[in-house]
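User: Here's a chain of 264 residues. Predict its fold as tokens.
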Amino acid sequence: MLVFASLFAGVASAGPYGWGVDGGVTLEQRFPPPEGFTRVSAEQGSFGAWLRGLPLAPEGTPVLLHSGAEKARQDVHAAVIDLDVGTKDLQQCADAVMRLRAEWLYGTGKAKAVSFNDTGKGAPMPFSRWAKGERPKAKGNALVWSATAKPDESRASFRAYLDTVFMWAGTSSLEKQLVKRPLDAIAPGDVFIKGGFPGHAVIVLDVAKRGDEARLLLGQSYMPAQNLHVLKQADGDPWFSAPTADAKYETPEWTFPPGSLRTW
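Assistant: Prediction complete.
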């Protein structure tokens, strides 16, 4: 079984990709746009630009579960994002989407904006409260916060916060937190999501266009928790056609109903 050093890295240095990676090929470098297409513009420092710089594991790396075992299906990914998945069954589909958003905010000095809603009451779970030493505890179907730890804004504390978010949030809460996006405005960082138990979420990692025609790079985690990976089609092409209005959207392991596109 192939495992490389940084895949399950722990505490890391600060920076936009500060979870413990050491260079390597980026998403943008490995996946040039299809012939005749051009990547859409992404403002420097934006979430979309950050996604293009995501570091990738070496070519041929399998998707691993949180246990370290290989995922049963190894035929749906074109690449593995060099991002730890943790050792528990927590970082599943919507969790991986939230992880990327949170890592961008944390790594670019916007940690105070990191906040996700819980599934029970839809109440916010901000990192700012966690960093002050507050911790959430279930009371009925609500979460009650109390100061039970020392203030800590470190990466180790941030990573522990994310695992707690993954326990209390999911596709149902994230779908409600995000806002609808029209297909003709699709952009890197948008999310196809179907809330439910189970539900699923796939993030748009990049967009390339030729006139009004769009092609998408898509990323997902899945159940059980597994490495975030770039999806590919049956013919091996990682660039998916964008969906058309009022049509279902087929991805390798999930079909999304019309109107599933959301943004932050």
